[in-house]
Design brief:
single chain; about 500 residues; mainly alpha; two-stranded antiparallel sheet
Length: about 500
């Protein structure tokens, strides 16, 4: 009961007027950052760090945490309405969320995303509250071979993400991995594929790529498609929220997404984004109607949106328990701790119990605030789709260009945005989906770094990856799945020829 008592104490701290206001400001800024692509939660927190110098440590960290998970919550809005991921973790939501919007079910998709985020975020927070020490010790047992194994098997499992052919998806994943190699090599510091362009030394910004592929690609596709084909179905007020069937189909994906997000969130790297791909693949596999995925399946929104919010809670475990930032956003949060003279780690709970439990309790409150703020706005967001195309698309273009320019204030980024927009349009016209490319771009650096560092540790012996307990188990399972898929495809093809 000590944990429960301390959590209650945390709620007392987090509900003080100053801390409650900081939580509200944080989730509002986070939602805005998530909705508007570009600056992202990392940039927002970095800009606000100087303003926190005069604030109490608990108050400032509550605000920063609110920006963190608020951005994940808000990223679904533009993904569903405009097919533009506000955050990297919202890429998967575009697939079925935008398809639902074109069918007049944007309100249902937004409502399910909001409720799912609350439930799954709470699941992640329960795990954070009770299992932080155990889970954090498990997480640090992962080394480069394990990262390589997870990335490799993840790509194999998630390759058939959008329902297109394995060949097309595999090609897009390969292109994404290749794009991820542009820039400085993290091990040698050598420029690769920069073609003497200084701006490419920092690599290809993920936000630029997805805004071009999804946002600009969608705009160009709209320009060449007739108005009748692009017309969004009308809807009535009572259709703004999910019906009984959609609620029934969303319940289990939300809980599964919460569990998947929490477990994946413990893995170093872009765990919130990876968890959405995993959740989508699981829901597509378990669904009784897999043919609906990619065409407006409610499970394709409920599962991934739940997963990314649960992963946000799980990402706090290694940061608070061990002082180890497993992602870029965690590193920024760590700097917030250090500015106030607080060092996260095993002694945080004993030395700063008010901060530790106040921060955790504020995350419970923040999730509820996000639902209260966003759920009533579902109707307003949904009605945006009734805006005429000739007005809506220029607005989308302005938002996308502004977001891309705000990242580095670079004209070159706008050139890249246009280039990837043309690529996204060409992919749409030829039947290729951008989501597998985004997956390859996300996991590519993890795959490459894990392989290189693992070979160094194993003295260049590839068998080292298969002989370690965790990485070996993951890779052997991946090999078994690959063999099973090849054999089953061969048998199906043989049966079809006999018929």
């Amino acid at each position: 009961m000590d944990i429960v008592d301390m959590l209650i104490h945390g709620f007392v701290i987090s509900t003080s007027p100053a801390n409650l206001l900081a939580c509200l400001i944080g989730v509002l800024i986070g939602t805005l950052v998530g909705v508007l692509p570009g600056i992202g939660p990392i940039g927002a927190i970095a800009l606000l760090l100087p303003f926190s110098f005069t604030m109490d440590a608990t108050t400032s960290l509550i605000m920063f945490a609110g920006i963190f998970y608020g951005s994940l919550f808000g990223g679904s809005t533009t993904s569903i309405l405009l097919n533009i991921p506000g955050e990297a973790s919202s890429v998967v939501t575009c697939i079925d969320g935008y398809a639902m919007a074109k069918k007049g079910r944007a309100g249902a998709a937004l409502a399910v995303a909001a409720v799912g985020s609350l439930i799954a975020g709470t699941i992640g927070l329960i795990g954070l509250t009770f299992f932080a020490p155990v889970m954090s010790r498990l997480a640090v047992t992962f080394g480069p071979p394990e990262y390589f194994a997870i990335a490799t098997v993840g790509l194999l499992i998630l390759m058939k993400l959008t329902g297109t052919s394995m060949l097309k998806s595999g090609l897009m994943v390969a292109v994404g991995i290749m794009l991820g190699t542009v820039g400085l090599d993290s091990l040698t510091g050598i420029n690769r594929f920069t073609f003497a362009v200084d701006e490419l030394q920092r690599g290809l910004e993920f936000s630029i790529v997805v805004m071009g592929l999804f946002g600009i690609g969608e705009i160009l596709d709209t320009l060449v498609t007739t108005t009748n084909q692009r017309k969004v179905q009308s809807f009535r007020v009572r259709e703004l929220y999910p019906d009984k069937e959609e609620i029934r189909r969303s319940v289990m994906p939300i809980f599964r997404g919460g569990i998947i997000g929490f477990l994946v969130g413990l893995i170093p790297g872009p765990s919130a984004t990876i968890s959405t791909f995993v959740s989508y693949a699981v829901e597509r596999k378990k669904s009784k109607h897999p043919e609906e995925f990619g065409h407006g399946a409610i499970e394709g929104v409920a599962g991934p949106e739940s997963a990314n919010n649960a992963a946000a809670s799980a990402a706090m475990i290694p940061l608070l328990s061990l002082g180890l930032p497993f992602s870029a956003i965690s590193a920024i949060l760590l700097s917030g701790f250090m500015i106030h003279g607080v060092i996260p780690g095993p002694t945080l709970v004993t030395q700063h119990p008010d901060l530790f439990w106040g921060l955790i309790a504020s995350m419970y409150i923040g999730n509820v605030l996000l639902l209260i703020i966003n759920l009533p706005l579902v109707g307003l967001f949904a009605y945006l789709l009734r805006t005429p195309i000739h007005i809506l698309m220029p607005v989308v273009l302005i938002i996308t260009i502004t977001g891309a320019y705000s990242l580095n204030h670079s004209i070159f980024d706008l050139v890249l945005l246009a280039g990837f927009g043309i690529l996204g349009f060409a992919m749409k016209q030829t039947g290729y989906e951008p989501a597998p490319l985004a997956l390859g771009l996300i996991l590519g650096p993890t795959l490459e770094t894990g392989l290189a560092q693992g070979l160094i540790i194993g003295d260049g012996n590839p068998w080292f990856f298969l002989s370690r307990p965790i990485s070996g188990t993951i890779l052997w399972c991946g090999i078994a799945l690959l063999v099973f898929h090849i054999v089953s495809s061969f048998l199906k093809k043989k049966q079809s020829t006999q018929i």
